[in-house]
Amino acid sequence: MNTPFHRVRAFFSSLTVRLVFSQILVAAIASVIGSLALVLVLVIALRNTDVQQYQGTAVFGMMYWLLGVPDGHPMEPGIFSYGSGFYIVEDGKGGVLFTHGDTQCRAGMKLADCAPDLVDIQAGERFFEVDGTRWVESSVNTITGQRAIARLGIPNAPELYLMLPNAPIYGTGKFTLVVATAMALISLPVGWLLAWLTVRPIARRLNHVMKTSRQFAAGDFSSRVQDHTPDKVGDLGRQFDDMADGLEQNMITLREMAQRNVELAQQVEKTAVQAERIRLSRDLHDAIAQRLFSLSVSTATLPDLINRDQVQGAQQASVIAEMAEQTLLDLRALLVDLRPSSVVQRGLAEAMESLCEEWQTSHRVPVECSVMLTGRRVPATIEDVIYRVAQEALSNVAKHTHASQVHVSLVETPRKMTLSVTDNGPGFDSESASRTGKFGLLSMRERARSVGGDISIESDTARGTTIRMTLPLGIKEQDQEQQQAALS
């Protein structure tokens, strides 16, 4: 909307106009306060005048008499006159010679008859107050024997034109109003000019800072204030530029870190694939290739052996058959190892039982499988680690322990899951095996640590070996699952 009302409102809402009007208001208020303070100082000064300052005031009445001023003439503001009070000159014997101002006495009258309170007045000056008005009373004896008496009202306000003859005397309220109004009127144009000259450049610089901040917030991270003036507005601009530089550098760093994380994730994936290939190559070489080579050699010599001795040839054929069957079992076990836990769609409990059954069938060793789960959802990373460590532990039993009985246990509690694989084969030195990396212990430990777990080994030559893995359950595992899903 662009109505006149909105345009006027926008004009008075601008920073420049507000600052200018504030400066003008400050100037006007300062001028009024200054004028009031000036009047207050003058009034206080008059209120605090010392009586010594009125010494000899009565002599003015003597001067009026000598100058021939008519007797009884009223007092008028002037160079040597006050606005209220009177002067009296008497002959020293109580007879009135001259009067001036507001008094009942006249020349030729007795002072005792017209002003009896002045008969015994002593020479000198004194202050007194009547009905809130201060008065000064002065008495002076002349060398010719006359006595001059003055009773004058002290003015309550400054007299703007005290030194001018017949100038009017202003009261305190009227004087204050006139001075304050004059000072305010003078301050308005002066304040406007000074405010416009001083405020407009500052407002323009502040508007530039606001415009730059809006551009930066909108995504233009190259926007800078670039104000090098050594004042507060310049400091604000430089602080904004420093903050913008820091944010821009942080964003560059975050982009580089994100790129490095992607590269590291790709590198980790390649490393894992390469490690898996090396493991498969080793297993194929150790288990399948060697047996196939033995089968090839045994089969090649079998015809000659049968020709020489049929009984011994039959025995050799039986050995070859057993070797072929064992090779088939080893190949089947290897295929089971290749299956990742993510493809086990039947759940962890059924997958563990299936793993134990297949291993028992392949290696002809009884396996007792005990799985106790609560049925709640377990992160896929935890299930994968449990399945893979169980595979590795059973593989180690088959390769190295020559056990006749194996027990696999998986127990879930509210805060952890515990996997135990126990065999009754001959034990071994677990510390030495861990240092040398035998029995796949290093691989199992790395898998457990990847989800915050740990593996312990208990081995005894008389009681066999137990591999126990403990994995915590909670928010940490769920966060790891989400991170892994994001990387994939």
Describe the structure.
- This protein is α+β, with helices and mostly antiparallel strands.
- The chain has three domains: 50-153, Beta-Lactamase, CATH 3.30.450; 224-338; 346-488, Histidine kinase-like ATPase, C-terminal domain (Heat Shock Protein 90), CATH 3.30.565.
- Helix content is 56%, strand content 15%.
- It contains twelve helices and ten strands.
- The strands form two sheets. The chain has a five-stranded antiparallel beta sheet with strand order 2-1-5-4-3, with helices on one face.
- Strand 3 and strand 4 (133-141) form a beta hairpin.
- Helix 2 packs antiparallel against helix 5, helix 8 packs parallel to helix 9 and helix 9 (380-401) runs antiparallel to helix 11.
- The longest helix is centred in the middle third of the chain and has 77 residues, at 232-308.
- The two termini are 52 Å apart.
- Residues 157-172 and 475-483 have low confidence and may be disordered.
